[in-house]
Amino acid sequence: MSYRIGLIGLEQHVERVFGAVDNDPEIALVAVANAGERSTEIADMYQAATYDDYHDLLARDDIDVIASFQLPVHQGETVIAALEAGYPVLSEKPMATRQNELDRIIAILQQNTSLHIGQLFSRRGNPVYRAVREVVQSGRIGEVALAYALIAATERRGVRPEWFFDRRLSAGPVLDLLIHDIDIVRWITGLEYQSVIGTEANIGRPDDAHYHNVGQMLFHMDGGVSAVLEHHRLVPPSLGRMDNRLKIVGTEGQAEITHDSRVWLYRWDDAQELTELPEQQDIFSNFVRTACAGHEPIVSTQDAIVSMQSTLCATEAGFSGALQEVPPVPILPERAAP
Fold this sequence. Notes:
Elements: E1 3-8, H1 15-23, E2 27-33, H2 39-46, E3 49-51, H3 54-58, E4 65-68, H4 72-84, E5 89-91, H5 99-111, E6 117-119, H6 127-138, E7 144-153, H7 167-170, H8 173-189, E8 193-201, E9 214-221, E10 226-232, E11 242-250, E12 253-257, E13 263-267, E14 270-274, H9 283-293, H10 301-320, E15 324-325
Parallel strand pairs: 1-2, 1-4, 2-3, 4-5, 5-6, 7-10
Antiparallel strand pairs: 7-11, 8-9, 8-15, 9-10, 11-12, 12-13, 13-14
């Protein structure tokens, strides 16, 4: 079977789409929109049709899945248009930057049970995070009590596009960066967020009026569990480009991921590094194959929506400094085969 992809935009981690197309003979890129100066290059490389207006791409009748990789501020409108056109959508994160956009996405999914939506939560495919999830879900650390996660990066000005440093376009670091940990902590623990309070700040960049480079969120989860999730863009180059850490504390031990991507399990009577890890999973390929078959992907439609809702609340908490209740998301009807 061949799966035909329509790609809208080339922002952020769009190489994940090209990687899947290049490495999977059953996934083909048939159309691209909003590719700018790369339109001719991509058309020649993949024999794909190109469009300046993504609405023209959505008018085709030979596409199986839409991949949306727009600027964050334009992502919501694109995802909504694709869903309204009847396509399952795998979106770069965030798939929406405003509550009214997410509400519209939910309404469409409630009306059309053959549609799936996913976000590129690549950590769900990463062996180290999958290993921690297996440990926690197996009960080896007992009942979850606390969670901590850090996602941090070097700034890389002059390499990253300028929109990346302007929250009017990027929607800010919680929606662009911390969203990964917001999703992975709830996926690993199986617990939902109830409320969040936090801070966002611009440290050391006084001339950037629309830039935040540090933040910290405190989530209250089911059962009284708390989760501290932090982000910053101040990683020293001597440490590398990223500094990602995770710790899940339980009543009988704890599991953690260190900055060098090693997984450790600590129990009362022993400590061990976990070296036999699950296989890497390609989140994009998995979504394409399962959504087209009417099955739940690794990033399910319900999970994509719930993590998005929690992230929108965290964004507001960071900007306002006020406690935000995380409203429950409706349980969506079970997805059916298209």
